[in-house]
Amino acid sequence: MSDMMMILSRATHSCGPNSSSPPTNQLWTRLLYSLHATSEFAFNFQVALTNVAMGVTDKVLGGVMLLAAAFVFTYYTTWAILLPFFDASSPIHNYFPAREWAVRLPAFLLVVGLTGIGFFVGFTIMKENRKKAQKAKLRAA
After folding, report:
1. Membrane-crossing residues (predicted)?
2. Each residue of 14-68: pLDDT tens digit?
3. What would the pLDDT profile of 46-58 be if each residue is shown by its tens digit?
4. Residue 86, SS3?
5. Are 92 and 86 within 8 A, CB to CB?
6. Would 97 disulfide with which of 49, 101, 118, 130, CB 3.0-4.6 Å?
7. CA–CA separation, 6 vs 25, rounded Å?
8. DSSP E strand boundaries for the chain
9. Alpha carbon 35 to its chain's center
């Protein structure tokens, strides 16, 4: 706001009775330039704040995902690879399901994931073929 007051005071002083230029032209030009610069600064500041906020949330989300992946990797590695080296009477066996699930669970997740990807690709191809058929009908009509 102080920049705006300074520009207005300069404009009124330069448009006094001793000034040779028309007072309204100079005043409006400076005022409009000031408003444009102020609004441009506010917009750029808002965009910068949005980018920073999105960057922070992206970093937090990435960190959470990384921690989750590290936990799953550590748990599964301990379960599938290290657990056989412990005695069957060890209390660490209480924290893990039976060993055959260390193979069954990833196989099931792989089948479900590949099925989901297959359905997605199939539906996308079907939609594209419908759009092409509609365009062909419109051209023919």
Report:
1. 64-86, 106-126
2. 444 454 544 555 665 565 556 555 666 666 656 665 665 666 788 889 999 999 9
3. 666 566 566 678 8
4. coil
5. yes
6. 101
7. 17
8. none
9. 32
Q: pTM for this one? A: 0.50
Residue recorded with tokens 């001793």: 18
- Cα separation of 37 and 54, whole Å? 26
How far, in Å, CA of 78 to CA of 72, rounded? Answer: 10
Could you identify the residue written with the tokens 């997605």? 120
C-alpha neighbours within 13 Å on the C-beta side of residue 49? 6
d(CA 117, CA 126): 14
| pLDDT given for residue 57 in this prediction | 83
Provide Rg for the chain, Cα atoms.
34
